[in-house]
Amino acid sequence: MKKNTGICLILYFHLLILCQNTAFGYGYAKEEDPLIKVFKAIILYGRQADWSKVATEVNSIRDRTTDIYRIFKIDLKPRIDRAIQQQDFQTLANQMANLIFLAIREKFYYNRKEKLEILVRSKVRLRIAEEYYTILLAGNVRDYDVRHNTSLHESIHNKFVKTRDTLGSMGFLGTGSVKPDAEEFDTLTKEIETLLLKAFPYFETGEADPAQ
Fold first, then answer.
1. Where is the signal peptide (predicted)?
2. Residues 33-61 pLDDT 10s
3. DSSP assignment of the chain, as one string?
4. Could you tell me the residue range of the domain that residue 162 belongs to?
């Protein structure tokens, strides 16, 4: 059996627990990011073998798979559809996890493209990317650390914290402003991506970042 099967099963059990919990908001007045909500629902309904509800949830995020394809040229839609048709929960979970990884990369991509020039947008995107990691992927990274005696989660967490500082600050009443550091942002986010690929070797990254 392939190694990624074991990884998928760990993802499966962690997400079942997460389905019972609430998480960070998105700026929607205490509501979760739509992708997080749908991801949890897909895992829950997949566990219950309620494939019609899985299909409904997947259909609600077609725009997200389209966005990912437009930037990274990875078409997850037919793979996800095939997993649903075959009622293959492991493959579905793997493809959805890959979607989350690419959604994180998407947030990084737009910040790079804008060179962090719009602080509010940059902060929101980074916050969402960190939420995707913390809520949906971090548990599996911790398990990877236990099994391989590594500290990937700590490294990823610390890099997210450092990345926040690269966004700069408007200061207060025109004083104490700090310019963004787009070069350091690029370095740190690429390191985050590399660390995630160590924990999830089956993730696909797509084409080279066109923002570079």
1. 1-25
2. 999 999 999 999 999 999 999 999 999 99
3. --HHHHHHHHHHHHHHHHTTS-----SSSSPPPHHHHHHHHHHHHHHTT-HHHHHHHHHTTHHHHHHHHHHH----HHHHHHHHHTT-HHHHHHHHHHHHHHHHHHHHHHHHHHTT-SHHHHHHHHHHHHHIIIIIIHHHHHHHHHHHT--HHHHHHHHHHHHHHTT-B--BTTBS-B---HHHHHHHHHHHHHHHHHH-TT----S--TT-
4. 21-199
